[in-house]
């Protein structure tokens, strides 16, 4: 129960941050040239000044900046994200259509990065300064230094064009009506390359963090005591070292949730995935303020939710948090 109270306090403290982020993004966008009506007129091939004035009045863009901000925050209190003039439908509907692709990409990439980063970090720490450590550290450095867009493009060239093992992009095959398990497998096949592109970068970070954490914990007194009692080395690592070494990894998940959302913009653009990242890029280009603010709001909620789960996991791994030790 104490864990939930502590996590609830963190959750409540994030609400002012969320409001400040929305206000900041709203005000920053006011400095950008043009507005939604300008983008609409460009799509229509132009129009007269009277039509532009009427559209600005209809969408409330003729009001002052502070009046527009007040109207948006009041709608947000009623859970109304507004209407997208570019897509011609409510912002909530536009985001709901794009959200599944981003959530699947983030979940798959994070799972891959965490699992293999954990395994490779442990192997590198157990074989420190030997060839496994050198090989794993070198691969981690390569994956970390390699730009994600370049890796994605090279993956398309090799696996989609040359070998023709995997699709080059998209979320699913729209030429065939898949259903049930067949559709699940088709989506999974389309997500292989984007997941590798985004996940390998973060795996490089996790394996370095895990390696350093393992080396630090392996030299602590309670580990030496367990060894002195004759405990098997594998048992020492699994029962005593791993739980303490996981704490920085779990913390990093919460810190990098927002970074991974930002990275999805590049990956979704390279692989033509209909996700929030690509939608955010399109909204900036088309000056669709309501949609962009809706994306920021939903993204911030996702980051808050991830950090809430991380707080619960952290308290589970380290009971001193709940006891106040």
From TrEMBL:
- State the Gene Ontology BP annotations: transmembrane transport
**UniProt-listed Pfam families:** BPD_transp_1
Q: Does the keyword Transmembrane helix apply?
A: yes
Query: Which stretches are transmembrane?
Result: 12-32, 103-123, 135-163, 187-207, 245-271, 291-314
The keyword Transmembrane is annotated on this UniProt entry: yes
Q: How does it sit in the membrane?
A: Multi-pass membrane protein
- Coiled-coil annotated residue ranges, if any: none
**A single GO cellular-component term on record:** plasma membrane
Q: What is its main location?
A: membrane
Report the domain of life of the source organism. Bacteria
Going by the UniProt record, its keywords in alphabetical order are: Cell membrane, Membrane, Transmembrane, Transmembrane helix, Transport
Q: Which subcellular locations apply to this protein?
A: Cell membrane
What positions does the domain ABC transmembrane type-1 occupy? 99-314
> What family name appears in the similarity comment?
Belongs to the binding-protein-dependent transport system permease family.
Q: Which PANTHER family match?
A: ABC TRANSPORTER PERMEASE PROTEIN, DIPEPTIDE TRANSPORT SYSTEM PERMEASE PROTEIN DPPB-RELATED
Q: What is this protein called?
A: Peptide/nickel transport system permease protein
> What species is given as this protein's source?
Bosea psychrotolerans
| Phylogenetic classification of the source organism | Bacteria, Pseudomonadati, Pseudomonadota, Alphaproteobacteria, Hyphomicrobiales
